[in-house]
């Protein structure tokens, strides 16, 4: 796959297709010329011109719904000059089929548009995020990955990555813990944005933040020239977000992220001093300890459920395990349906939803599946 991408890069910008694909609006289906069975949704900025190279986002949805990510990135793409393509073929299931879909989409885009080989990005949600990560790892050509609701293909955190990572997770996302671990372990450039919600694509507003963050990373790495006006615009926005944070822990995390992102580009010494002071405060230390304790509790719950599920395959343990699973899951269901939002309700929804989704592949026990079907959590209330 790496050799294939190098071939793509050597041809990029040399063959610009004469076909007129309208700019400034989403096109739901663009068929790949080399293989019409492969297609993608597309957004091209309204000011597109073949006289310069353009950044591009290759997006993968777990259900092969190419328009969804393209719509989410549309505003950011228009404002910051990105071509966005969402595969209509890549979906959860076959790794090989998804990688072939990405290759076909990338090759077609490389023939139609003038792409900057230094500014190629992969984006995905859930299983699509794992595809995006795999593409970045396999090709070595991605400047960054925007990963919604999932991380690495094997779900295991790393200490470093050869590309920038902007990850998102909902407060009720069953992969929330995975993304928190990724954020805690990863030392190379990355950012984790937590939003109120469940398992899904990042919002349009978060997509703008993701692209702005990638622009800053591109300036720091030399992938793009420093743009003082853009830098000042994004920096001012981040300062305003920091000022709006309520609570010492939120202020600490926002300050540390600001320092990490803009160090070397702006004078952030004052914010570094503030962050250091906040990290010494008793209230912050207690909040961090509580947060980690809650994560460990969630990990124990998941491990206990997985152990009991595994015991369903043991004739001697099955009956007892099923009784315990019913009890634990019923308790989680009650907590997940609590009328008031709370840390426990969010945790219960994450664990219960993760158990339901994961058991489809892990456990082939009809009676257990009936238990899970009856205990699906209520939809998250709006407002």
Low-confidence stretches at least 5 residues in length (pLDDT < 50)? Answer: 11-18
Rg measurement, Å = 22 Å
How many strands?
Answer: 8
Helix fraction, binned, reads: 40-55%
Number of helical elements:
13
Q: What is the average of the pLDDT values?
A: 92
Write a concise synopsis of the structure shown.
The protein is of the alpha/beta class. The chain starts with a helix and ends in a 9-residue tail after the last helix.
Task: Give a description of the structure.
The protein has 383 residues and is α/β, with parallel strands linked by helices. The protein contains 13 helices and eight strands. The protein has helices at residues 2-11, 67-80, 95-112, 127-139, 176-185, 204-221, 228-243, 248-262, 269-280, 282-311, 318-336, 343-362, 366-374; strands at 26-31, 39-43, 54-60, 82-87, 115-125, 144-148, 164-170, 190-195. It has an eight-stranded mixed sheet, with helices on both faces. Helix 1 (2-11) runs parallel beside helix 3 (95-112). The model is unreliable at 11-18 (pLDDT under 50).
Keywords:
8-stranded mixed sheet, 383 residues, single chain, 13 helices, alpha/beta
Write the layout of secondary structure elements.
Elements: H1 2-11, E1 26-31, E2 39-43, E3 54-60, H2 67-80, E4 82-87, H3 95-112, E5 115-125, H4 127-139, E6 144-148, E7 164-170, H5 176-185, E8 190-195, H6 204-221, H7 228-243, H8 248-262, H9 269-280, H10 282-311, H11 318-336, H12 343-362, H13 366-374
Parallel strand pairs: 3-4, 3-5, 5-6, 6-7, 7-8
Antiparallel strand pairs: 1-2, 2-4
Helix pairs in contact: 1-3, 2-6, 7-8, 8-9, 10-11, 10-12, 11-12
């Amino acid at each position: 796959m790496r050799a294939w991408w190098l071939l793509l890069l050597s041809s990029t910008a040399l063959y610009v297709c004469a076909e007129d694909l309208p700019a400034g609006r989403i096109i739901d289906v663009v068929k790949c010329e080399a293989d019409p069975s492969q297609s993608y949704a597309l957004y091209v900025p309204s000011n597109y011109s073949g006289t310069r190279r353009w950044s591009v986002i290759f997006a993968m949805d777990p259900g092969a719904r190419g328009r969804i990510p393209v719509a989410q990135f549309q505003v950011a793409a228009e404002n910051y000059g990105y071509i966005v393509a969402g595969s209509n073929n890549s979906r959860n299931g076959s790794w090989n089929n998804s990688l072939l879909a990405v290759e076909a989409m990338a090759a077609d885009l490389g023939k139609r548009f003038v792409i900057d080989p230094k500014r190629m990005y992969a984006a995905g949600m859930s299983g699509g995020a794992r595809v995006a990560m795999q593409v970045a790892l396999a090709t070595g050509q991605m400047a960054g990955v925007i990963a919604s609701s999932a991380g690495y293909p094997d779900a295991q955190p790393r200490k470093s990555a050869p590309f920038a990572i902007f990850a998102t997770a909902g407060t009720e996302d069953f992969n929330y813990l995975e993304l928190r671990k990724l954020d805690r372990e990863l030392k190379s450039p990355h950012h984790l944005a937590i939003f109120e919600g469940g398992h899904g694509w990042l919002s349009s507003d978060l997509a703008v933040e993701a692209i702005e963050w990638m622009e800053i990373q591109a300036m720091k790495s030399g992938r793009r020239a420093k743009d003082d006006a853009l830098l000042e615009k994004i920096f001012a926005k981040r300062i305003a977000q920091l000022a709006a944070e309520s609570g010492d822990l939120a202020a600490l995390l926002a300050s540390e992220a600001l320092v990490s992102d803009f160090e070397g580009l702006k004078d952030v010494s004052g914010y570094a001093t503030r962050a250091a002071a906040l990290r010494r405060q008793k209230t912050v230390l207690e909040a961090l300890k509580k947060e980690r304790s809650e994560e460990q509790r969630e990990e124990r719950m998941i491990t206990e459920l997985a152990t009991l599920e595994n015991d369903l395959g043991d004739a001697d343990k099955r009956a007892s395990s099923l009784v315990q699973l019913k009890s634990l899951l019923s308790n989680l269901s009650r907590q997940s349906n609590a009328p008031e939002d709370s840390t426990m309700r969010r945790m219960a929804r994450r664990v219960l939803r993760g158990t339901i989704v994961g058991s489809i592949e892990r456990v082939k026990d009809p009676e257990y599946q009936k238990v899970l079907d009856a205990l699906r959590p209520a939809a998250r209330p709006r407002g």
